[in-house]
Specification:
This protein has about 450 residues and is mainly beta. It is built from five helices and 32 strands. The protein folds into three domains: about 160 residues, no CATH class; about 90 residues, Immunoglobulin-like; about 180 residues, no CATH class. Strands 1, 4, 5, 6, 7, 9, 10, 11 and 13 form a nine-stranded antiparallel β-sheet that branches. The termini are far apart. About 30% of the residues are buried.
């Protein structure tokens, strides 16, 4: 093995617990700025190699790559690139932030002015580990109002392979990016465009690169270059989602001229089983959660005792802005013809149903008869009785109830359906959102003004 020059990098971790005002001190009780200083030590060099080498003056080092793990082994910095600035014969880096605690330096590399790895600290057990006093990993602690000194020694990588240092590769790569300009507009009924805010998500190769809200006419967005396709999704409540895929070359055409996205207002929503939740409540098992494949409203007898069932339904109305005027909202419930027992067995008397607005939060996986939410009796919608209990109930008009929920974004708790008169014997069975017959699951159609 060739004898190599090496440097001792003395990195002073300066914990400067300073702030401009009281608020910033309060906000950073456990975070401290960390900076690394490096100086060449001729004595350390000679002792490490038996006085066979001369100290080499370093003038072309530009930045450091450092990986730091916490005391649980979790990486808090992974090959973080920190700029080095020459200062009175040594080098000082820009600051990192670390919480007070114990840490380990797991990787340490120095880059030259061309961005190439020039020096590295060998890892324990590697071929070059014996040339330094303290190979990686190196433990250190960050304490408030104290200076912690870490001294990783670096060797020149000339004529060596990464494996000689214990690395699979010197994992530094330059990330090339490009900018493009985007504008977001909404369209009204007259197709008049108005600049607006919206949320943009950009993904490529199954990885999310952007997810942020953008505002105004011109937005400069920066993304990684060299990816095959870029999928852009623009979302705004009350408007149709824009979704399109571009190549890098296509997006680069909008470096100065904006890519304008026009969002159309949604006039009709269809909520299927993905956006509806439901659960049956039964007095027979008052503490059981009955979130199953059927939703039921009946009053019957079991073992001679009267038993009642009701059911709850919740709707995801997040795409409808608060206060939006609803032209119509129609709920469709379908007879569950895959029920284990025939409705002839269960159908009894007049089975009018009532739909009431729920005014408390509930969870379909935990709600029971005993903890069921309260309802608002005023404004209840009545579903007329059917003839034999085997009737689908399409297009039930619940516009006032949905309007009430839309008017209060903090009170969108859904509805409760029960028999108008809960006396024996009356029953209605419907397919729930989990029913095996997908075409029998409930649907809510909403038309906006």
């Amino acid at each position: 093995m060739n004898t190599k020059n090496f440097l001792t990098g003395i990195f002073l971790i300066l914990i400067a617990f300073t702030a401009c005002n009281k608020d910033s001190i309060e906000d950073n009780k456990t975070l401290s700025p960390v900076e690394f200083k490096m100086a060449v030590s001729e004595n350390s060099t000679k002792s490490a190699v038996g006085n066979k080498l001369k100290t080499t003056e370093v003038t072309n080092v530009k930045s450091a790559l450092v990986s730091i793990a916490d005391d649980n082994g979790n990486l808090v910095y992974e090959l973080e690139q920190i700029e080095l600035i020459s200062f009175n014969g040594s080098f000082i880096t820009n600051k990192l932030l670390l919480e007070v605690g114990n840490y380990t330096v797991t990787e340490f590399l120095l880059l030259d002015i061309n961005g190439n790895v020039a020096y590295a600290t060998p890892k324990d057990g590697s071929d070059l580990a014996n040339l330094v006093n303290d190979p990686l990993a190196i433990d250190f602690s960050v304490n408030l109002n104290e200076t912690t000194t870490v001294t990783p020694e670096v060797l020149s990588i000339d004529n060596f392979e990464p494996t000689d240092f214990g690395y699979v590769e010197f994992g530094f790569r330059y990330i090339k990016t490009f900018d493009f300009v985007m504008g977001i507009y909404t369209l009204d009924d007259n197709q008049t465009a108005t600049a607006s805010n919206a949320n943009i998500t950009l993904t490529a190769n199954n990885k999310e690169y952007l997810n942020k809200e953008i505002n105004g006419i011109l937005n400069v967005l920066t993304v990684n270059d060299g990816l095959q396709n870029y999928s852009i999704k623009v979302e705004k409540s009350g408007y149709k989602t824009f979704s399109e895929t571009y190549t890098a070359e296509q997006l680069k055409q909008y470096e100065t001229t904006p890519l304008n996205i026009y969002l159309e207002e949604i006039k009709e929503f269809t909520l299927d089983y993905n956006k509806i939740t439901d659960a049956t409540l039964t007095s027979f098992y008052p503490d059981n959660n009955e979130n199953g494949t059927f939703i039921q409203a009946f009053t019957w007898t079991f073992t001679g005792d009267p038993v009642s069932c009701r059911f709850l339904m919740g709707f995801d109305l997040s795409e409808i802005p608060e206060g939006q005027q609803i032209k119509s909202a129609k709920l469709s419930l379908f007879y569950a013809d895959n029920h284990v027992a025939s409705l002839e067995e269960y159908y009894g008397g007049q089975n009018d149903l009532k739909i009431e607005l729920v005014d408390q939060a509930w969870d379909e996986t935990t709600v029971t008869w005993n903890n069921q939410p309260s309802t608002v009796a005023a404004g209840a919608v009545i579903i007329p009785a059917d003839e034999n209990g085997k009737i689908d109930k399409p297009d039930i008009d619940i516009t006032p109830l949905i309007q009430a929920m839309v008017n209060n974004s903090d009170g969108r708790f859904g509805i409760k359906i029960s028999q108008v008169v809960e006396t024996i014997y009356r029953s209605s069975f419907f397919a729930s959102t989990e029913n095996e017959l997908i075409n029998k699951r409930p649907i809510l159609k909403i038309v906006l003004n």
